[in-house]
Amino acid sequence: MKLATYKDGSRDGQLVVVSRDLSTAHYATGIAGKLQQVLDDWNFMAPQLQDLYDTLNNGKARQAFPFEPSRCMAPLPRAYQWADGSAYLNHVELVRKARHAEVPDTFYGDPLMYQGGSDDFIGPCDDVVVPSEAFGIDFEAELAVITGDVAMGATPAQALEGIRLLMLVNDVSLRHLIPGELDKGFGFFQSKPATAFSPVAVTLDEVGDAWDQGRLHLTLQSTWNGRKVGMCEAGPEMTFHFGQLIAHICKTRNARAGSIVGSGTVSNKDWSHGYSCIAEKRAIETIENGKPKTNFMKFGDTIRIEVKGGDGQSVFGAIDQKVVEAA
Amino acid sequence: MKLATYKDGSRDGQLVVVSRDLSTAHYATGIAGKLQQVLDDWNFMAPQLQDLYDTLNNGKARQAFPFEPSRCMAPLPRAYQWADGSAYLNHVELVRKARHAEVPDTFYGDPLMYQGGSDDFIGPCDDVVVPSEAFGIDFEAELAVITGDVAMGATPAQALEGIRLLMLVNDVSLRHLIPGELDKGFGFFQSKPATAFSPVAVTLDEVGDAWDQGRLHLTLQSTWNGRKVGMCEAGPEMTFHFGQLIAHICKTRNARAGSIVGSGTVSNKDWSHGYSCIAEKRAIETIENGKPKTNFMKFGDTIRIEVKGGDGQSVFGAIDQKVVEAA
Questions:
Q1: Distance (Å, rounded) from C-alpha A288 to C-alpha A282?
Q2: Are A98 and A238 within one domain?
Q3: Which of A121, A326, B108, B303 has its CA at a distance of 20 to 30 angstroms from the CA of residue A142?
Q4: Which stretches make up the Fumarylacetoacetase N-terminal domain (chains A, B) (predicted)?
Q5: Is this prediction's pTM over 0.95?
Q6: Nearest chain B Cα to A137, which residue?
Q7: pLDDT at res. B101
Q8: Does A257 reach chain B within 8 Å, measured CB to CB?
Q9: Which of A13, A34, A67 corresponds to the end of one domain?
Q10: Predicted-complex ipTM score
Q11: How far A58 CA lies from chain B's nearest CA (Å)?
């Protein structure tokens, strides 16, 4: 099934069930008002939502209405955890190669992951609000899962069983703030402003065979200012699958229901696939020509991130945002 | 007023109002079931809770019951943000001096802060569950505030206005996992297991003049295995006050209601005050004798963290925990 959260002026919005083709939606009122409630009590509520979803897909839902992504908040407008991995090692290799640094061997056995802010997510069509272009505004097109409860010590296989929903992410990054923050040693903070998510989050059955043991074998499309810059294959080059990423969290603690776990920038060794973040394009330019040529985003720039299924239809709806200056 | 969250088998527990002397409590049912609801709608709900608090303190609340800290969850059992600063630069100076490293000048103008996991906090008397003693188990006694909404770009003075509640923290740290994580550059993750908070969170009026422009001028007591090891003054040596810490978050994003912001380990230049984490004691030993003598915590160890007011009474109740091995 496909779930979204409609803006209604409240902090958590209103849960809606969205038809498979993303044409219609129906409020989940009577089952659950908020997605977090569903995640807190998945086994009880998910079957009820599935029934409504089936009815909606059959055109039998009597109070269905046209689905409008622009009315969406993030599926979880705020979350208790947002842990973002960097699971495509090619991305790390490129960025490091551009600055003549090696990738430590340990990076191939132990995922990179940072804890992100999760109190103020933005919707798929909300503006990306940044105080200054000088911060080096970049998009990062990623996949993410939302988990149920996964206990401390869970294996990657056990962690896979805890995945409830799948969605897209624009992990907006402020590149020029990153070096200073990493030098301080405490990780990203100001360099990661509010994160955006796709209009809908979907259960794994929605992608069929494209989901294979923690990896999504579909193409992630990134379109910057109307120009398609990335057609990256998300499956084969994901060094750590989502079960491994979740198990990384669970080495020393529990991951509780509603935890969002990101893949990091999707990246392919074959540069002809393009890029899922500008930093990677700049790294390639630096490797080829000694310096970057492509600039980061300007106010007014747009970014669209989407995945199409085997049938050519949009799976999650599109993240489609404009960058604007903070008031 | 003083607020706590009682365990009731649910994820968010039941909000209770606690008397000033911590002797009695009363369910806030009828006003709000959960603390996050209050933070989401503070101006409407706080006065109602204050009325109940006054009635309780006057001995007129008809369904009051004895307050038991052991029945408490963290005041916010899960939160949308846990951002922990390192605002006592003396702590940073000591740890760096022990390894012959300088403190960069920028550290005195720009706070250190990491994003912590906030999906699975533990209560004040809950066990600290760790998979292995070899991880280097340490406590960190800190203060924290819970905020309302604070907008992107807020000044430190504006951010101070957003503070709703004050509490104590045990920011459990796994010291031997930290160097490897910091080397990776993405900050703390596995080295920060579930965090514990004091039985009650209090409004600023509860500490009177001890609260002065973002700093709490009281003594933070840490008692390890029954031995008082820290009597640290929390006020004068806090390099960055809470308004500055919150403003640090807000440079590039909003901080939304229910954000928890920590002070980092409370630390004094005068070593006779003792220590609020074992790492600092070991740093002092290393500076004095070339190597640390004090070991980190073992399974079965206890840690008690408390602050007493000008009247000698416990302000927040005590964090009082035992370290145990993960099953």
A1: 10
A2: yes
A3: A326
A4: 1-78
A5: yes
A6: B252
A7: 86
A8: yes
A9: A67
A10: 0.97
A11: 36
